């Protein structure tokens, strides 16, 4: 199967609507791909907290409408990154959207781990509760977002739910680029999955985003990577490699799930 990461430039020079139509044009141009991926919170800007209230929307809002049409036009599964979702109660979430080849919304995931400690996303958004996987015609996709990469428990949960490929949209800070590069390879290697990590570039809210989107195979090998400009990374994946690597190096069967914490004396 063929997958493309659209490393989108996100800054303060465009409105959310202008960026939607620019992104949709890029998606439509990926006809022939099986899966297309966009970054985290690319409509409002992951660090532009002042825009979240204005640009918040429902999972059936303007971003979903435009991305659904783009997926249908390209004939590809589309992971449309994530949006600032506002639910019926007014709570905001960082929510990923996955559309199938016909433009139907097949999965959504509310980010479980919210970044910011006592500021930003941690205080301005609600957290999700559910581990989300979606079956496709090329394998089972697991959904995670950016800061989730620092929490291996989620990725083990996705593995146990059947994930063979995990998609991680992000707006990772350039200042911690080395962490991004290490964690993406680690999560792919430890779960023996393909990991598609799509990060934005540009600066907004005073934060430079790191770019360096990458596709990593179940052996931990980087199959394709971007730099720091807007660009597209396209890689052909052999999904049979997941089974082959898990068979040749069957570390997952050696997991010990019931390890008790030591008693303090």
From TrEMBL:
Protein keywords: Hydrolase
Using the record's annotation, list all stretches that form the CN hydrolase domain: 1-239
Q: Which Pfam families match?
A: CN_hydrolase (PF00795)
Listed PROSITE patterns: CN_HYDROLASE (PS50263), UPF0012 (PS01227)
Q: Domain of life here?
A: Bacteria
GO MF terms listed in the record are: hydrolase activity
Query: Could you say which protein family the record assigns here?
Result: Belongs to the carbon-nitrogen hydrolase superfamily. NIT1/NIT2 family.
Q: Mind telling me what this protein is named?
A: Hydrolase
Its source organism is Streptomyces phaeofaciens
């Amino acid at each position: 199967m063929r997958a493309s990461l659209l490393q989108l430039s996100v800054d303060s020079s465009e409105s959310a609507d202008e960026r939607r139509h620019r992104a949709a044009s890029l998606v439509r141009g990926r006809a022939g791909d099986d899966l297309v991926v966009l970054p985290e919170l690319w409509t409002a800007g992951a660090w532009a907290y002042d825009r979240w209230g204005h640009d918040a929307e429902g999972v059936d809002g303007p971003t979903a409408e435009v991305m659904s049409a783009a997926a249908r036009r390209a004939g590809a599964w589309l992971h449309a990154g994530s949006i600032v979702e506002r639910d019926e109660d007014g709570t905001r979430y960082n929510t990923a959207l996955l559309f199938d080849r016909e433009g139907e919304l097949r999965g959504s995931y509310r980010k479980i781990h919210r970044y910011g400690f006592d500021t930003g996303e941690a205080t301005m958004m609600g957290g999700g509760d559910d581990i989300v996987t979606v079956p496709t015609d090329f394998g089972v996709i697991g959904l995670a977002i950016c800061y989730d990469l620092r929490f291996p428990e989620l990725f083990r949960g996705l593995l146990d739910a059947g994930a063979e490929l995990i998609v991680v949209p992000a707006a990772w800070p350039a200042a911690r680029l080395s962490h991004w590069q290490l964690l993406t390879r680690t999560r792919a290697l430890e779960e023996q999955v393909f990991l598609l990590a799509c990060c934005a570039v540009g600066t907004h809210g005073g934060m430079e985003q790191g770019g360096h989107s990458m596709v990593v195979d179940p052996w931990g090998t980087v199959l394709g990577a971007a730099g720091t400009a807007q660009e597209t990374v396209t890689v052909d994946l052999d999904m049979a490699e997941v089974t082959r690597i898990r068979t040749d190096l069957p570390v997952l069967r050696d997991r010990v799930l019931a390890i008790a914490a030591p008693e303090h004396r």
